[in-house]
Amino acid sequence: MVIDHIGVAVMSLEEGIQHWEQAFGYRQMTAIVINTRQKVRVAFLGKEDSLTVKLIEPTDPASPVYAFAKRGGGLHHLCFKCSRLANEIAKLGALGLRVLVKPQPGEAFDNEEIAFLFDKQGLNIELIDTDKKAGLLCQPAE
Known about the structure:
The protein has helices at residues 13-24, 66-70, 85-94, and strands at 2-9, 27-28, 33-35, 40-46, 52-58, 74-81, 98-106, 112-118, 124-128. It is an alpha+beta fold. Strands 1, 2, 3, 4, 5, 6, 7, 8 and 9 form a nine-stranded mixed beta sheet that branches. A hairpin with a 5-residue loop joins strand 7 and strand 8 (112-118).
């Protein structure tokens, strides 16, 4: 497995994008995508030779990231790309990780399946087995 991106919760996607562009030199890679299952809006940002960042804004108080974002947000999850989602979930489950969200279509990944697990070290882990990103505008800036 390799890290595909880090997820950062924000209360305003537009402000978050502007901050990451001005402060860290990232560039918006995708259009804003609405994830109806998680009740969030997301956008991917990139920078050459750096990890991709997914900014996550809750759209509803029932969103799983709402309370966290309201408290100031920050690092929400690490996303690992693997070769087979089901196999990796079984392997990680055997190692003590707890499934938070069973495989389901992820709108930010052109509806390819995603899953979320909770690591015993206190980390939210997202798993994907695709390179797709919905609404791709550009590759990371050079």
